[in-house]
Amino acid sequence: MTNSKQIALLGLIVIVLISHGIANLFVMELNNSLTTLSITLFLPGLFIAFPSLNLQLYPAILCNTITGILIDATTPIPMGTSAFVFLIVQLVVFQFRSVIKKNNLYHGWVIAQITNFVIFSFVTLYFNGKYLFEDGIFIRTLLDFIFSQSALAIIAPVYFTIIKKTIAVLRMDLYANELSHK
Amino acid sequence: MAKRPLNRYRPFLLLGLFIFIWKVVPKSVQLTLHKSFYEFQAPLWIGSSKIEDLHSYWSTRTNSENKLIEAGIQLSRNNHELRIQLDQVKLQQEELNSLRSLHNLSPINNYTYETARVCKRDLTSWWQEITIRKGDNHGILKNSPVIFAGGVVGKVKETYETTSTVLLITSRHFRMAARFENDPRPVTYIGSINSSFGNPKGIVRDAPSDVIVTQEKSQKLVSSGLGSIFPEGINIGTVHYLEPGTNGLFKAGKVLLDKRLLYLKEVSVLLPKNK
Amino acid sequence: MAKEKQKTSSSPVDLTERLKLRRKKLIFFYRFYPLLFFALVIGLFWRQVIQNNEYRLKERRQAMRKIVQPGPRGDILDRNGKLLVGNRPRFSAIVYLDRLRPDFRKEYFQRVRNIRRIKTDLHINQSLKDVNVILGQPIGTKVGKNSTTRLYAQSIRVKFKEDSVISVSTNSDQLEWNTRWDVIQSYLEKINKITGRNQTLAMKDLKVHFNHKLLLPLPLVEDLTLQEYARLIEEIPVESPIQIYTDTARYYPYSSAASHTLGYVSKEKEKKNENLKTFRIKRKEGKTGMEKQFDEILKGKSGGEVWLVDHRGFQYNQIEKEIPVQGRQINTSLDIDMQRVAEDAMGSKIGAVVALKVKTGEVLVLASKPNYDLNELTPFIPTRVFNRINDAGAWLNRATQGLYPPGSTFKMITAIAGLNEGKMLPETGINCQGKLWDMKCWNLSGHGIVNLQDSLSQSCNVYYYALGVNTKVEAISKTAKMFGLNDPTGIEIPNETGRMIVPDREWKESKKLGNWRQGDTANFSIGQGYIRVTPLQMACFTASFARKETLTKPTLLYQSKKEIQHPGTNLNLQVDHYQAIVEGMSQAVTSGTAKNSRIPGLTIAAKTGTAQVPVKGEKLTIAWYVGYAPIENPEIAVCVTIEGTDPNDRFNGGTTAAPIAKVVLEQYKERYMN
């Protein structure tokens, strides 16, 4: 890989990570406001679909690991758990990349939904597994899940489009170095 | 051709490598990584919170002069009233301290207050925490009690350079020794997840069977001061009913907490004077 | 062979015959097989259907365990609803061993790895010195015929022959126990750090718990102080295997007040139990007093859990749960304020005070001194406390178990006997010159001519010597027995004495004390000599006399009815005779020996007494007071008994017992008559 390609790749990673950071902040602010209603949006799926689908293996792994650790660092989830789950999802998506259309927003949307569901379930079982049916926890979890998936359904396509547009505006080619791996 | 299967298994190998590294890496390194990633993001939350403060500042500035003058007058009245009350409190405090010293008891007010703005509220069904804009640099200590106008907020769970996370009173992992307002016997308070669109709540356990609480005759639950964290008499919430607990020996019931816990903007961290 | 085979196979007749032959051979099986099958079916039916319950029970026994949690005991209240005995929470820090299994496992494998590593440094023929350098000094040595086995702290067993290693092995059993102990001790250290204690778990206790009480919580620190409890609650994470276990201990808000009457509890004795292997959290059972008497009512209903357990006996699934139910409460007839006033009035004196409601027999006060702080006896009696109470002689409930000669308080009975026998009239006078025969009156200069009223108010002994001898022992004894002085009162507390004595000729002879003499009668007539009664009996006699009846059934239970039917009969005594006795008792209060109990606005009929008992060659005095009030409509009967402990004690019914009775009567007047 030439130096210019490497720089372009690094640029892509930085753009994706910055986008994730801003999106994370946005979700945080949204949650800050929703606390009055005791509703929480949990949207890790938002951060995994784009790099897994659009980036090469190594950049995608790097993006997902960093995003995962960023999430782990700010939540009581045991350190490395999100990064681990992100890598597993990345692995699964990578296996089906030949049948998934990168340009199709719907595919990314579905992956985000599925990933979100998986991580949501994992965290729920980890933290509330024993108490799920106690004292209204199930209803609260269910409502949080419904709201999270609905919010993701709305935000994900917009978010993916914004990243793509940003990359385009910065005159970067998302799939430029893909040919070299084929 | 030989490269293709390797390509296919590369993600698995990488995942395996990640797990291996994560297992091998010492805990201290993991903790450092955790702290660094946290500290890396903290300025974002602080910035976002400061923008919010700025927003409320500018929205206040848009008020008409008359309205501001009116508010100023009201504030001055309130201040005046509070000044009188403060003087009374000071006198009572002095009297109390002299009485306590007569009985060789330690003075009651052993805390200083550190007021902090809330920059992040994580009130999920899995964990209940807030992040405040003060940390190690401001002398915040782990396990310090955190309170607000409505009573107990929680205790400091973790401190960072400029921020701290607070385990909320509504967290299932939060437990403290409490008592009913007019009863010295200690009971156990445990947090409970608040339902969607509902008020924050907790659970009281180990209440003696002769404690009577009904919907009409509710009782206030306050901190017992017997433990090592919370001083005595800080409001926790109100208990509206008690029923026989699961062991049949004591009563248990729900504690209704202050609704403002859901949208806390500012809290006070109590710091021991001697530290 | 081949030909023959061909032949046989080619002949159909032969084949049929052979088949028939084979069938004949098989016929045994054809018939026997169904029989066997039938037997099998029957057997199956027997096992599956008939013995179903037995096998089900066996399966339950093998795979299920029951935990019994006793219900909290009921409260005991006084007649005004004040709590006399309740429950206080008792906090302990505990661990459930099944929650520590991952820790045990992790630590065990860690140690096994360590041992493996250490074992690589040990080899055959290594010297003892070298082994000790690697493993340290052995913790145990077992000398065999040809070899010596040394046990090391790392749970390694090394066999030596003449100080050379011949084999190295792991002591798995020791390793397991050490691992368990270390894991639990590490949790205990956390508790020690928070509470500032310095407790260690005894290996013996761990083994006993592990082998016999696996499903029950293992107590690490029991009876935490409130501060320790609060600190642990706040500092130990909610999800930690250390939990704060809360059960109840008896709580006595009035500490030592009515301690003998209320009684105390202790852990019940081990019980052999039912069909399932049961782990029982021992309940508290009443040992003395009302706690014992009403144990069935107070004890509550036990609850419990049934758990499925794995092959090692650890619980993994709860099948049943029943919540324990608190025992019922008891409303006693006691008035705790009066009780405390009475006990305070007694001060450090030894004795008893009994106050009864005349009409219902309800016991308002049942005090015995010295007493003890009931809170010190729960949850168990420390040896130090036991010895202190024992040395003070405080275990004895003097009101129901203390036997004393009643002294002059018995004179009413002698008077009733004399009047009933027609041996005298109330107005008959007897000249007291300070002594009769060689028996002295307490007033050595004599009372002069005294009639019945005077004899009671002045407590003249000479009058009763003469009256007693005239009336004869049989009549006096009969009258005393009529008032129930020869029988326990039947009050609802255990261990009321049954050894009271109302002597007569037969009794003395049966005890091989010689013939009954005139002096015995004289002594008996003033409540001295062989007679022994309890303060409660004298209180009951006073109440019966006040009601003009013969018996009072005292009760410690609050009665909602204003009057109840007592056993016994109406007092067979002429009205003027009865009135004369009452008058005498009244005069005793207004101007006689009981004047120290006079209360303005309250008419009291009372009699004091000062008896003497020989103890170890010395004479000790017993001060008595019995009385009731108001005279017109009797409501309360009081008996005070104070023991002298030293021959120099100048105890006297009028100066020692009467002031105590006065306090009790005053309190009653204030609380119930105004």
Structure, described:
- The complex is a heterotrimer of chains A (182), B (275) and C (674).
- Chain A is mostly helical and 182 residues long.
- In chain A, α2 (45-54) crosses α5.
- Chain A has helices spanning 3-34, 45-54, 57-74, 81-95, 105-128, 137-169.
- Chain A is globular.
- Chain A contains 6 helices and no strands.
- Chain B folds into 2 domains: 8-61; 112-275, Beta Barrel (Thrombin, subunit H).
- The mean pLDDT of chain B is 88.
- Chain B has 275 residues and is of the alpha+beta class.
- In chain B, 35% of the residues lie in helices and 29% in strands.
- Chain B has 3 helices and 13 strands; from the N terminus they run αααβββββββββββββ.
- Chain B has helices at 3-24, 27-61, 65-102, and strands at residues 111-123, 128-132, 145-148, 151-159, 164-168, 175-180, 186-192, 201-207, 219-223, 235-239, 243-244, 251-256, 266-272.
- In chain B, a hairpin with a 2-residue loop joins β3 (145-148) and β4 (151-159).
- A 6-stranded antiparallel barrel of chain B has the order 1-2-5-4-3-13. In chain B, strands 6-7-8-12-10-9 form a 6-stranded antiparallel beta barrel.
- Chain B starts with a helix and ends with a strand.
- With 674 residues, chain C is α+β, with helices and mostly antiparallel strands.
- Chain C has 22 helices and 24 strands.
- In chain C, the strands form 7 sheets. In chain C, strands 2, 3, 8, 9 and 15 form a 5-stranded mixed beta sheet that branches.
- In chain C, α14 crosses α17 (473-482) and α16 packs across α19 (518-525).
- Chain C is elongated.
- The interface between A and B is large, with 49 and 43 residues.
Structural class of chain C: alpha+beta
Radius of gyration of chain B: 24 Å
Unreliable spans of chain C: 1-9
Instruction: Give the proportion of residues in helices of chain B.
Output: 25-40%
Q: Determine the mean pLDDT of chain B.
A: 88
Q: How widely separated are the two ends of chain B?
A: 69 Å
So, the CATH homologous superfamily of the largest domain in chain C?
DD-peptidase/beta-lactamase superfamily
> Which structural class matches the secondary elements of chain B?
alpha+beta
What level of helicity do the residues of chain C show?
A: 25-40%
Instruction: Return the domain count of chain B.
Output: 2
Q: In DSSP terms, counting alpha (H) and pi (I) runs of 4 or more, how many helices of chain B? A: 3
* Average residue-wise pLDDT of chain C: 88
Number of helices of chain C: 22
Q: Name the assembly state.
A: heterotrimer
Strand content of chain C: 15-25%
CATH architecture descriptor name of the largest domain in chain B = Beta Barrel
- The CATH class name of the largest domain in chain B reads Mainly Beta
Q: What is the count of β-strands of chain C?
A: 24
Order of helices and strands of chain B: HHHEEEEEEEEEEEEE
Overall 3D geometry of chain C? elongated
